[in-house]
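New to this. Please check this protein:
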Amino acid sequence: RSLLPTDKDRGVFLQRMMSGIREVLRDRTGLQHQDNYHEFCRLLGRLKANYQLSELVRTEGYVEWLELASAFSVQSFQQWQWSTNSVHYLLALWGRLVAAVPYVRPDAGGRAHLPALQACVQNVVRAYIKAMIDSVEVVLMSDGAVEDPLDDEGSLREQLDRLPVICRFQYESAAQYILSLFDPAMAAYQEVLSVLTPEGPAEAMRRAEALEGQLTWLVYIVGAVIGGYSLTDAQALEGEEAIDAGLSRRVLQLAQGVDFRLSSTGGRAKCQERLELALLYYMQTFRRQYLNAPGGAGGGADGLRG
């Protein structure tokens, strides 16, 4: 602000920056280089931190910028192997945009751009969730050549911290999408377990490993989203507790099935440790939101390993 002392100066500088970002997003200039790509994601993630949403929406071409940033984010999630360390910067961008919506005055023009933001955020949320689910098969097929994003605890925590505000922006839609992935994965997992023994068969064991990886992501996502709710939050919409309940029911059913499998085999058949950690993460967030803190505490779990 010291370099740009007046609002007019800030507006001119922001307009030039937004125009430059649009040009890079449109032409993908220099983004084939990984270092450039990472720094560009950092720029996007920091943009809203340095400017108010009301300033952004007044710039020329704001809606085009939104759409280009959304398409770039979707592609980045789909190519997560190349951009793992950059994902949370993109999630930060959308989280900050969404969090600022209630504070934009109508005369700033922000409300007129709300439908565009809603459409972009929905695409971003779905692309992120789908990409993480699909990453499980990619990692398994690579036979160790591709690093598993679930193994990067720091990056995973940063991503989970960004999810609640983005998913709850259009919570019913996001929850329906999560359930559209959770229910088939649960049904397939139960079917595989019905024929699986500690000794095999090998194909069933591999299928169980893949499904447990997918369910691990879904449990982490549900835990993160529930952790973003506060019973005292004035912006929380009526009925969100019911959506939380629907998501929680699936996780608790999964936990019950995992426990039954373990106890019925005398401890010989157990799920992967990462799925157990995801279930513990969910339990932490649920306890914090609905059991421990009067009126809800807000925020996610302190750590993935409790």
Notes: The mean pLDDT is 87.
